[in-house]
Amino acid sequence: MKNENKIQYIYGIADNALILGQRLSELCGHGPNLETDIAMTNMALDLLGQTRSYYQYVAQLSGDDKTEDDIAFLRSERQYKNVLLVEQPNRHFGYVITRQFFYDVFHLLLLQELQNSSDETLSAIAKKGIKEVSYHQRFSSDWIKRLGDGTEESHQKVQEAIDDLWRFTDELFHMTDDDDMALQDNIGVNTIALKERYVQMVKEVFDEATLTIPETKWFQKGGKQGVHSEHMGYLLSDLQYMQRAYPNMKW
Amino acid sequence: MKNNWPLWEVFVRSKNGLEHRHFGSLHAADAEMALENARDVYTRRNEGVSIWVVESKHITASNPENSEELFDPAQDKVYRHPTFYTLPDEVKHM
């Protein structure tokens, strides 16, 4: 597979971590209490750390003098390949946790497969990430159970979040042309094959939480092709502001 | 939310072979959440290998008003320290 296609394949994974990390970072100092605030900020840092590993590899593959910062901060909206789920804005805590849970379960299944990649760098990044993501999934699953099986109000709020966000979950399993190429070369993961296990894992947690998966047959898609929701532009203007206003700045 | 959550004391073992030491306290709804919160609040810079949490209400503390009778009598009994004999050079780590 050509480097250009491999880079696109990596964006399809890494951009999810960047955008979800950015969403969680927005909550820094705004969590419902100190302990939960720190927990979510920790997850944001884990995700941004993973993003850096992927982007450093992309910078190396692209062969020009591009840096990880250019990749993170200087692409246009259509060049980001994250799924729509992760760019959905923060609403109440139950909404943030639901978004997190839907991504964590997928993320864990993905990395468990990606660690077998024939690409040594991707395999190494996946292996390192699994430990972090296992904890994210434990954290968000616990909270789904607490909120679902908590008070009447918390149950209602988290069920509403599920009803709103479930339509973004199908896109997680879509395969782009670059995904197909990566799979053929044993570099990438067959995400279609992850879906059954995903639904099963979500259902196990929901059963315990007395929550239900909505019966919708209609799902949203587009992010993987770079066609994002109306929220993405605002997110990127925040994310890119410093690098655009002060080009080449470094921490 | 926070007002409903009890307080927990957190003890962290920083290395195998060392004892758990008191690191601080936090709020959590139950023991499981207390462990997760402790992990995030106190061990995210690689401070520990094991965590204990105990709900603060289970700790019985000495009363500061009783300090005189509890602790003052020990002040003039330096002979209770094992410092009044010379150690042979061969004995290390004392």
TrEMBL record, chain A:
Organism phylogeny: Bacteria, Pseudomonadati, Bacteroidota, Flavobacteriia, Flavobacteriales
Cellular component aspect of the GO annotation: cytosol
Residue spans crossing the bilayer: none
Entry-linked PANTHER family: 1,2-PHENYLACETYL-COA EPOXIDASE, SUBUNIT C (PTHR30458:SF0), PHENYLACETIC ACID DEGRADATION PROTEIN PAA (PTHR30458)
Protein's name according to its UniProt entry: Phenylacetate-CoA oxygenase subunit PaaC
Pfam families: PaaA_PaaC
Domain of life from the UniProt record: Bacteria
GO biological process annotation, one example: phenylacetate catabolic process
Organism of derivation: Aquimarina algiphila
Automatic annotation (TrEMBL), chain B:
Protein name (record): 1,2-phenylacetyl-CoA epoxidase subunit B
Top-level taxon of origin: Bacteria
EC number: 1.14.13.149
Enzyme class: oxidoreductase
Keyword Oxidoreductase applies: yes
Matches recorded under Pfam families: PaaB
Entry keyword Oxidoreductase: yes
Record keywords, A-Z: Oxidoreductase
GO MF annotations, alphabetized: phenylacetyl-CoA 1,2-epoxidase activity
InterPro entries for the chain: PaaB, PaaB_sf
